[in-house]
Amino acid sequence: MGNKRVLKRARKTVIATVVGALVVSGLVSFGGGAAVAADAPPTLPPLLQRDDNVVTSDPIPTVQIDNGYVWAQTTIGSTVYAVGKFDNAREPKAKPGTALTARSNVLAYDINTGALLPFAPTVNGVIKAVAASPDGSRIYIGGSFNKVNGKDRWNIAAIDAKTGELVPGFIPSIGGSGVYALATSGTSVYAGGLFSQANGTARKNLSAFNTANGALLPWAPQTDQQVDALVMDPAGIDTIIGGRFSQINGDTGLRGIGAVDKVTGAVDTAWELPDTVKNGVGTGPSAGKSGIFGLATDATGVYGTGWAYANADVANLEGTFAAEAGTGKVRWIADCLGDHYGVYSTGKVIYTTSHTHACGTMGLHPEQSPRTHRYSEAFTADARGTLGTQPATPQYKDWAGTPAPSPYVWTPDWAVGTTTGLGQAGLSITGTGNMISIGGEFRSVNNGQFEGLVRFSTTPPEGPKDGPRLSGEKWVPTATSLVPGRVKVTIPANWDRDDLTLTYELRRAGSTTPLFTTKMDSTWWNLPAVTFEDTTAPAGSQQQYTFTATDSNGHTVSSKTTTATVAESTPAYSNAVLADGPELYYPLGTVAQDVAGTNSPILRSGATPQSSGVPKGVAGATALDGTVTGRVDTTTKVAAPSSFSAELWFQTSTTSGGLLFDFQSSATVLSKNFDRTVYMSDDGRLNFGVYNDGTKVLTTATAYNDNRWHHVVASVSPDGMKLFIDGKLDGHLPGVTKAQDYNGFWKIGNGNLTGWANAPKTTPLLGNVDEFAVYPYGLTAGQIKTHYSVGNGSTAPVAAYTATATGLDAAFDASSSVPPGSTTIAEYRWDFGDGSTAAGKTAAHTYAAPGTYEVKLTVTDSQGLVGSIKKPVVIQGANVAPTASFALSASALTITADASASSDSDGTIKSYSWNWGDGTTGEGAAANHTYATAGTRTVTLTVTDDLGGVATTTREAIVTAPAALASDEFEQPSTRGWGYAIVGGAWKIAGGTTTTTTVADGFGKLNLAAGDTRHATLNTPSIPSPALETTFRLDQAPAAGGAYIGVIARDSTAGKYLVRAWLRPDGTIWLVAHRDGTVLATQAVSGLAFAANTSYTLKVTVTGTAQASIKAKIWATGTTEPTDWQLKATDNTPLQPGGGVGLSGNRSGSSTAAAIVSFDSFRVTAAE
Fold first, then answer.
1. Which of 128, 464, 707, 1147 is 20 to 30 Å from 283 by CA-CA measure?
2. Are residues 510 and 409 in the same domain?
3. Where residue 34 falls among pLDDT bands split at 50, 70, 90?
């Protein structure tokens, strides 16, 4: 690009209307852009769960376009201006041709409601650009037209944003094909497109006008081809230009993108992006067939979309870029293949529209077969990783290692339209606040009635409704039982348009409690298997299973129910395979499941179950039709095994060979890496290929395309590379002890045979396959012979043993092993699970440490067949006592204890017991306790481990009573009234005379004749949320009559709350809450009786502002305080500011004798 100049003028950050042919950002304050990730991690950016910054996938009802399209949009406040080609708007959700309102290529709607607004200018041609003036008073439109509201306007016009009338005095004209991009800054409006003159003066695709009078400005950069997008750089100096050109002002380094000075039009050669993004050539058959389609900005960045109908030399970006404001330095590249159109930034999230068909380099979907398009994406504004390698083709540039954003799971479904001739969905995006608006030519969204315009929000008005996509007949589990008392239930994962992680539950019929709950990530292109083995179903019983999937918003779907009969015995062949510890086992046929693990098979359309298979196989075989879809794949990508054995039965009469199985790096059949390959040549011979410093191939001398069942095992281990056919070793390369290292998938029936010796004419296999298994080690010759023999009807020996352990010593006895028929057990081999081995019918072993060890016994009979069993043996050793440890924290009278630091070095802690030092106890690793009084307490923790070991530790707890806001202990005698409280001032007596209210013998007393009511209150500073506690007694028995005794809270001129104990004549006690004379709640107190001269403690809290919450409890003084509140009430009456507090007594009018209520104490603190 020539020498770069250093910009010497300050770049000021501005807030500008951003306008492109497809991308418009209106008059909203830009949020703070994400900080640039200077050092993106050298890994693929993680695919992210949608968060609160990202809109949901729920389309929101919006005014529609009837038989047309929206090409561009801008936003002023809450009004979206949409332009394109259409004659009518249609009401939200209305069907085509109904509920129409005339609109002439431009409309306005409220983004908050989706409703069409009265704004209705008429334009006689297509509009392809719209921009808002900086003050929001007008919009500028550009396109291919010559009349607006009946008046001459050539390809550009200014319209009042409220009235739709033409702005007087602004009458520029542009001659040529049309205006396709607009941007505004200050008193200038910039236009780009395909034209040759402006206001009668020569201009080459770019011009600028004064916004006051339409006068042509000197700004006159030139491009050789069409301009499609314009934005103002947020740094305030440049205009950014996007399009399908190959140069600006003769600078051929600016291909599809460049920056020019917004005043002079000179190229800003210091702007860096064109050094990286190059989309467009000026001559030849590819001229005009690539470019930058849309541009957008936020406070810190410039964003754009690329498209190409050519190869990587013509255009190197299909996807999206992010560049830094001011410098143009590349922040990230998102190289999702497929043309991209609209782009919009919220400052935190970047949205694009496209027809993406492959985006595996950054964690989205790889290329699908057949090709599948998606039409919108959401990315982080900052870089979160680096791009992976793009498959090598001349059509696409490999951006591997370039910083990349993380994509979000946000995949609405779009039905493409045809009105533009492009066959696309969304073409432009705008937004404000928590809303975005997408315009285009789409016919529906998520199968709903949304045409041309649709809104999405982070908080949809009716809440998020879009849930998991599969249910019922479209989501079917399988249940298989090959082992007694065990049922393996598997289902492909579900998927959700805006959730990465779903929660799965499996239920068995007759129970509401899930057998299994797990969380798993999934997408529409990656549906791993969800698998659970039910070990609680009785053998021989029939069970029904149903899965549910739930997204982050609580939407739940249910699968179809599947039924399984629980096995009472294991098929002999499966028993032989499972005894040897496979990591993958596909019986095939009618059992489409991984019986050994959780990597379920995917049967493509050309692979179908057959009722017959290996003579003594399990569930029939799978027929492969010899096409590209005649294959079985594993679901989950796993690390390539270094040592392995792969085993398969096959039957074929083909004369064109084919792949039996291999291990490939990709889910497709044309992987970059493929190894561990077994295939048949055209002549029927078998080959086993491994890549180890070049290809290494073992080839049989015999042909096996005789339409009989044959057994093949291929293995690589420290013993070398081996090929076994029908139970016998056929070839061995001792020096080949490893294969290629990568992650991938096992494939049966079709893959990639490029470069292998003796490769057949066609790769897909025509034939039947059965009983595929993969082991993480090299099988022995005896194990392989056993599998082949049992598959043909022979019986293997049954291995069995008993184990006894004392301390670290264990004894093993294999006498219960059973040989078949007239054979004998010739050999016993032990693997003790700690790296030690032994031989013999009995064995003894001393372990170094306690633990659970998987002990395996392998027996070999006199015919060379083997049987194995592996089971856990627990070695306890001498128990080591646990360690007790805990932390304490105190708040007033309450302590919190946490014993999570306790430990047991050789097991687990089973119980935690607390002694609080006040005569009470507690349980649990974490516990709380509230003391009755302040002081120092000794807290003791006792822990017990799983073997009965005990440990104890103690700590001191210092608890303090909360500060009293009012209190009295009634220690100052008085014969007239109650005098002064310790805290709270003078007591005020209401009801009766002072002679009936006294203090004596440490009690505040109220003398109550029948029907009397006395209140004693303290004029303390207003207490809004008091916690009140008092202790009282009554000197009369229930037979003499009832009484109400309690406390007063929030006493003011507006009223007061009374919470009292109702001592009833029948000897029961109730709690009653009043607001003045209105009863708010009553509650009988179970287990508490009213008796003369018995002391009771009453505790009450009153809290809350907008609504008062009243709680109370009562108990016999000296007994344990109840844990829970016995009475709860709420009140909305405005007694919220607080007020005074006090005590109250009332004697029933039907009482036969006067009574004295004696209060022993009264204390008020702030409620917690």
1. 128
2. no
3. very low
